[in-house]
Amino acid sequence: MHKARLLGSLALAAVIASGAAFAAGPQYKTAPIDTVYGQGVINPYGKFFTGTSYLQPLVGTDLGVVFNASNVTFEPCTRTYWHSHSNGQVLFVVAGEGRHQIRGQQVEIIKTGDVVIVPPGVEHWHGGGPDTWMSHVAFAPVPENNTPTWLDPVTDEEYNAPAKPHQNQQPK
Ligand code: MN
């Protein structure tokens, strides 16, 4: 092979190789917060998230219980897409500080100890803070009794809108 053509082929191979590395997806980073239940694996549902998140299942699907609980850890700026759950969801923040919003309401700052109640069918998102990791337990009926509807990504403008502290609701 002509030397110039060989070098060209090597350069092309390098471009393909770097592209392949990029396509391999998010890189695992260890959370600088105590995720309490463990950081788990890179979230297999990441296509419905902007940024990188991690999933640690807490309740096996083989145990017969009718609820599901998973710990989700968000890197800074990572957030879910807008979405709803047909039978709702409760988020228990266990570490760090993040953001959450229900459609039509102000963005909320959520911290360790906060309990976020998402009623059935209500559009919302949840995620890390602009500069902070956040870890929450997502508690909801098992997937066959709680269909998610995934919508659009949360834009940077939506994500960075002025936020107010979350206030836990007092159960009636
Ligand atoms: Mn949700």
From TrEMBL:
Entry keyword annotation includes Signal: yes
Pfam families tied to this protein: Cupin_2
Disordered: region residues: 146-172
UniProt keyword terms in alphabetical order: Signal
Top-rank taxon: Bacteria
Ranges of residues in domain Cupin type-2: 72-126
Cleaved signal peptide residues: 1-23
Protein's recorded name: Cupin domain-containing protein
